[in-house]
Amino acid sequence: MGYNVTQKLIQDHLVKGEMKPGEEIGLKIDQTLTQDATGTMVMLELEAMGLDYRKTEASAQYVDHNLIQEDSKNPDDHLFLESAAQRFGLHFSRPGNGVSHPVHMQRLAKPGQTLLGSDSHTCANGCMGMLAMGAGGIDVAMAIAGEPFYVKMPEVWGVYVKGELPDWVGAKDVILEMLRRHDVKGGVGKVIEYYGPGLKELSAMDRHVIANMGAELGATGTVFPSDEVVKDYLKRQEREEDWIELVADKDADYDLHETINLSELEPLIAKPSSPGNVVPVREVAGEPIYQSYIGSSANPGYRDFAIAAEIVKGKSVAQGVSFDLNPTSRQMLQDLVKDNHIASLLSSGGRLHQAGCNGCIGMGQAPATGRNSLRTTPRNFPGRSGTKEDSVFLCGPETAAASALYGKIVDPRDLGEYPKVEEPAHPTVDTSLLEYPLPEDEAKNVELVKGPNIASIPEMDELPDQLELPILLKMGDNISTDEILAGGARVLPYRSNLPEISKFTFEIVDDTYYDRAMETKEKGGHAIVGGYNYGQGSSREHAALAPRYLGLRVAIVQDFARIHWQNLVNFGVLPLTFSESSEVEKIEQGDVIQFSGLRQAMKNGETITAKLKDKNHEVQLRHTLSSRQVDMMLKGGLINWTKEKA
After folding, report:
1. Which residue positions does the secretion signal occupy (predicted)?
2. Exposed site from 131, 306, 452, 479, fewest CB < 10 Å?
């Protein structure tokens, strides 16, 4: 039996474990990606480790999230990140150069390599024939230091693609169709690999759109083959020498099978407030909108803006609509300017913002209260836009542009003839805002530039053998990391200051949590209870680190999203699941849960018994930690474990 592309990538990078689904494996990491919302903590972790110089083939630090400079916090941190990139031998993408994922694709992505990023949408670069995965920042720091990345061997979900996209249907509708079928948990424990004759109809950037939102399915990663389409893309980027062919063997098989016929797709849209809440656009046509937003790593290509420009060319957006344009790379923006697409967008009434993540993570462009926002972004979790009571719909650029003209959600097929756009034959290649790594002998002399907002990570104690913890929160299903710790302009500037950023923890769920948690902090801490898919969304490790700082010792849920589960382990928060799902009904917020002999129980196996104080009830719980992770957890997390190893 031959290998599929995912298996080839894993086999080529396997340094520990066996390729059996569910077993822990260690993978050599070739490249890393960090952005400014998560990278500050990564650089502090590298400093704490005493790293001399990166051990990866290539690592890049991007500034794309925290671009608003309303005071000194963001620019101070940008200077810190630049100095850290110079000190540790990383590429540095300056503010205004663009969103990490498409810029990395343009300049650094290489078929056949592994990429680990402290951003959940790192999986977007799976479009290039890479095994690209999101992870917590400390996992990325370890990879930069040359350590393997540990993950459970995924199942490989083969999606056979045939047909070709009809007019008015784009790559965004392909991934929305996957979400319509499988919702936000469908890809958990899996790498999604697309193959088949329909791939030749999808450009490299179309594939980026699809791979990007594999994160919304909960997938470990998304993989496309490295074929002639990828070769052509790299040639246009003047990087053809980086291309290798990487395709599935003819007799390869998959653990799971699915078929998508592109010819049968129609414009789709995800209603508030989940990427999995997908329906045909025609079902919500007529809903009034306040905002239409083009951009983000989920629709970052030249075509995504050019098709919108052609739709609105010579017309005006509806009265009262904010038509927000968020370019995703400076390089691509120059091509849109040269081809007059920016002029068409601005003449229609569009508002042009700087190249970056911007409103996708609540950094500007927040919608008005009680009004609908139509966005080409990857996520619409509650409050992510920056507006607490937001109402965000996710769609492709065709639907967003057509709806902007009418002031209401419109099925773009109603516009009639479909405008065709062509990618530039010779796109702009501009590296003027991408700083290359210093040689190692120069790097060691660089001093880190630390502003007043930088605070070191406090020391964390070992896991106690006896715990008596109040349940401070009981939550439902699909709690996202945005709800655990919000992003946006209020919060993210404190990303390098743990005591300050912790004040925003769980504020969307319960704004009394911080004060109540601080009361428990010196008394042994507390626990939380949740439902299914706890911790979905962003990879930001602050969503584990801030609750840990406030005294969270145990998280008990029905199941976890992969990256957040790993982040909890890394920072010494014990992640447990219910042995019987009905047990969650017997626990209430305010109950006190007791653990005794916990350390030995963890060593003995997966089952842990706890008691509900004053209820005379035992709760059977499970952990799914490897022996390596059990040892890490007992020591209080990855930082302590690494120090002891050193």
Report:
1. none
2. 452
In degrees, rounded to 5, the angle at the alpha carbon of residue 508 between the alpha carbons of residues 502 and 511 is: 65
Q: What token pair was written down for 412?
A: 């773009």
Buried/exposed 320-330: b ≥16 CB within 10 Å, e otherwise: ebbbbbbbbbb
- How far is the C-alpha of 385 from the C-alpha of 366, rounded, in Å? 5
Tokens for 42, please give them.
């990564």
Dist. CA 581–CA 609, nearest whole Å = 15
Q: Mind spelling out the 3-state secondary structure of 358-411? A: HHHHCCCCCCCCCCEEEECCCCCCCCCCCCCCCEEEECCHHHHHHHHHHCECCC
Residue whose entry in the numeric block shows the structure tokens 């400076």: 330
Residue 152: strand, helix, or coil: strand
Tens digit of pLDDT for each residue in 322-357? 999 999 999 999 999 999 999 999 999 999 999 999
Q: What is the DSSP string of 629-641?
A: HHHHHHTTSHHHH
- Please give the full DSSP string across 44-110, using - where no structure is assigned: HHHHHHT--S--SSEEEEE--S----SSSHHHHHHHHHHHHHHHHT-EEE-TTSB-HHHHHHHHT--
Predicted structure pTM score: 0.91
DSSP 600: H
User: In angstroms, rounded to a whole number, what is the distance separating the alpha carbons of residues 547 and 513?
Assistant: 10
Assess whether pLDDT exceeds 70 at residue 144: yes
| Cross-strand partners of 352 | 325
Side-chain-side CA neighbours of 41 within 13 Å: the count stands at 29
Residue 523, C-beta contacts closer than 8 angstroms, at least 6 positions apart: none
In one-letter notation, the amino acid at residue 61 is Q
Q: What is the DSSP pairing of strand 467-474 with strand 58-62?
A: unpaired
Cβ neighbours of residue 255 under 8 Å, at least 6 residues apart? Answer: 21, 155, 156, 157, 158, 190
Report how far apart, in Å, the C-alpha atoms of 407 and of each of 285, 287, 290, 316, 490 are.
11, 9, 7, 11, 29
**Shortest CA distance to 39 belongs to which of 542, 414, 574?**
542
What size, in residues, is the chain? 646
Task: With H, G, I as helix, E, B as strand and everything else as coil, classify residue 565.
Answer: helix
Q: How far is CA 627 from CA 169, 282, 493, 624, 634, in A?
A: 48, 51, 37, 10, 11
Handedness of CA 351, 354, 355, 357 (dihedral sign): negative
- The reply to whether omega before 273 is within 30° of 0 (cis) is yes
pLDDT, one tens digit per residue, over 576-600 is: 999 999 999 999 999 999 999 999 9
Interatomic CA distance for residues 193 and 154, integer angstroms = 12
Cβ atoms of 394 and 270 within 8 Å: the answer is: yes
Output the six-digit token pair for 334.
């120059």
